[in-house]
Design brief:
This protein is an alpha/beta fold and about 230 residues long. It has 8 helices and 12 strands.
């Protein structure tokens, strides 16, 4: 797997490169945010390890730019431990958040978990494997091409957002508890919390704008409204 490491501290960057190459990954490195964005466009990595505190533009801005054209999984790497920073990272399309100092072994484990979830999201849906396209109001979901349209506009989603969207709109009116969402959309997502699910629901609402189709059932969970 091709992994892009975006880190301006050469010591941390070298440690990450060593740990990832030991797992058989192909590693590319960048020290600045704008350089990273160009590398994503040219080299199409399978995953990005992204430091938040970069010398030119911060990692959050890099992620916002990347999300305009790619759904590549992103793991934020930062010395910030405040919850608000973690929430911001998830809201703008990050997949995980690792606080320094960290164990390279833990980071490698998180990468494996994210790739498993991403690969499942890109595969055909489990419940109706013969269907490759699902329609719900103006939304068209193509599970084989991992593509979502809202009207004539393509919506770029992360792997988790895609799986969550597919789960809800395949069962309009059905309420899913957070535990059910966690089990069905994330599978073995041991690193995912209820707060993570709430953040991804908020992100979906924002991306689909005026088509407000996700309803919160207070104290229980979420559902896609019946059209």
């Amino acid at each position: 797997m091709k992994v892009l490491v975006v880190e301006d501290d050469p010591r941390i960057s070298d440690v990450l490169e060593y740990a990832l190459k030991a797992e058989g990954h192909d590693v590319q490195k960048a020290q600045r945010g704008r350089e990273a964005i160009e590398l994503v466009k040219r080299a199409t990595p399978a995953l990005i390890v992204l430091d938040v505190g970069l010398p030119d533009i911060d990692g959050f801005e890099v992620c916002r730019s990347v999300r305009k054209f790619s759904d590549v999984p992103v793991i934020f790497l930062t010395s910030r431990s405040d919850e608000i920073d973690r929430v911001v990272g998830l809201e703008i399309g990050g997949d995980d958040y690792v606080v320094k100092p960290f164990s390279p072994r833990e980071l490698v484990a998180r990468i494996k978990a994210i790739r498993r979830r991403h690969d499942r999201a890109a595969s055909a849906p489990e419940e109706t494997p013969t269907e490759t396209e699902l329609r719900y109001g103006p939304i068209a979901i193509d599970s084989e091409k991992f593509r979502v349209l809202s009207g004539n506009r393509e919506i770029v989603l992360t792997a988790q957002e895609f799986k969550l969207l597919e789960l809800l709109v395949r069962h309009p009116g059905r309420v899913f508890t957070r535990a059910q969402v966690l089990n069905r959309a994330w599978g073995d997502g041991g690193l995912v919390t209820d707060r993570t699910i709430d953040v991804h629901v908020k992100s979906l609402r924002k991306k689909f704008g005026k088509f407000d189709f996700i309803e919160t059932v207070r104290g229980i969970g979420y559902r896609a409204r019946e059209l």
